[in-house]
Design a protein that fits this description.
α4 packs across α8. β1 and β2 form a beta hairpin. 26% of the residues lie in helices and 13% in strands.
């Protein structure tokens, strides 16, 4: 979904605050996933399978392979780059070059569990992958992780102040779908009526932090909420279902997040491998 200012979904802060700086703030992308995913599946489904999206996150054989993927994440990000846009460019880049399916992990903060970098943040997101059934976040945005794949629990504890964030399951839990209303600026706005504004921190109803694992194609919390509404039985949200990267969205994310992207659409197109031709459209990975 394109909006005039989609990246405002990233924070509770005002527009002036958003563009005001935070050289080290949560402008980056981090992901989070279920700490014990490999045991939850109990042998019926492979580790890393997102059953509600029918999507398999790649399960690598070694940390070295995960490091090689992470090394593909461009360091040319601006201090004002937004977590979701950075995660989008990184995911697209890695998927294109290594032919893998990453997940994205969103962590939603509460008043009790929020990142030290900036108490105003409503969420953070980054790509993740599996290594021998265990989830690792590929978050190049924060020095604390030393540009190395980080176990999801470590990542979760750093941002959400808990290793046991509530794993959102809005497909089977109506209260979780209700919590996702906070992915919008207010309860009265839907993804269909959304114009602009920030998502909100979650209430501490069930825990001090929440995580949602999705396919790599979903950029912002609003997109995730819309998909969950569709699967809850609302066909009017079908257009929000993502089964591949959308070229315009990836280019927009690049223009916001990358140093060479500022007002340089040509540079972003070339960097992302689109060139100036229209032939390579979405890089669909069907599953």
């Amino acid at each position: 979904m394109r909006t005039n200012a989609p990246y405002l979904n990233c924070t509770l802060a005002s527009l002036t605050l958003l563009f005001g700086g935070f050289a080290g703030g949560l402008w980056l992308s981090t992901a989070h996933a279920q700490p014990n995913a490999q045991t939850v599946d109990s042998g019926l489904q492979p580790a890393g399978f997102q059953s509600d999206f029918n999507y398999q996150v790649t399960n690598l054989g070694s940390l070295q392979e995960a490091q090689q993927l992470m090394d593909m994440e461009s360091k040319e990000t601006t201090s004002k780059s937004i977590c979701a846009n950075r995660a989008e460019v990184w995911s697209f880049d890695i998927a294109r070059k290594a032919n893998v399916q990453l997940g994205k992990v969103f962590i939603h903060f509460t008043a009790l569990g929020e990142a030290d970098e900036n108490g105003e943040w409503a969420y953070h997101v980054a790509p993740y992958v599996l290594v021998n059934g265990k989830e690792y976040v590929l978050d190049s945005g924060f020095g604390v992780f030393n540009r190395q794949p980080t176990p999801i629990e470590t990542w979760e504890k750093y941002f959400g102040k808990s290793e046991q964030c509530v794993v959102l399951d809005p497909r089977h839990n109506a209260s979780h779908l209700d919590l996702e209303k906070n992915n919008m600026p207010s309860d009265w706005i839907t993804p269909l009526t959304y114009k602009s504004g920030a998502c909100r921190q979650y209430p501490t109803t069930e825990g001090i932090c929440y995580i949602r694992k999705v396919p790599m194609y979903y950029t912002y919390p609003i997109n995730v909420y819309a998909a969950d509404l569709y699967y809850s039985g609302k066909p009017e949200y079908e257009k929000f279902i993502e089964t591949g990267f959308k070229k315009d969205d990836v280019i927009d994310s690049c223009k916001q997040a990358m140093t060479f992207g500022f007002k340089l659409e040509h540079s972003c197109k070339n960097y992302l491998g689109f060139g100036d031709d229209q032939t390579s459209d979405s890089h669909h990975h069907h599953h």
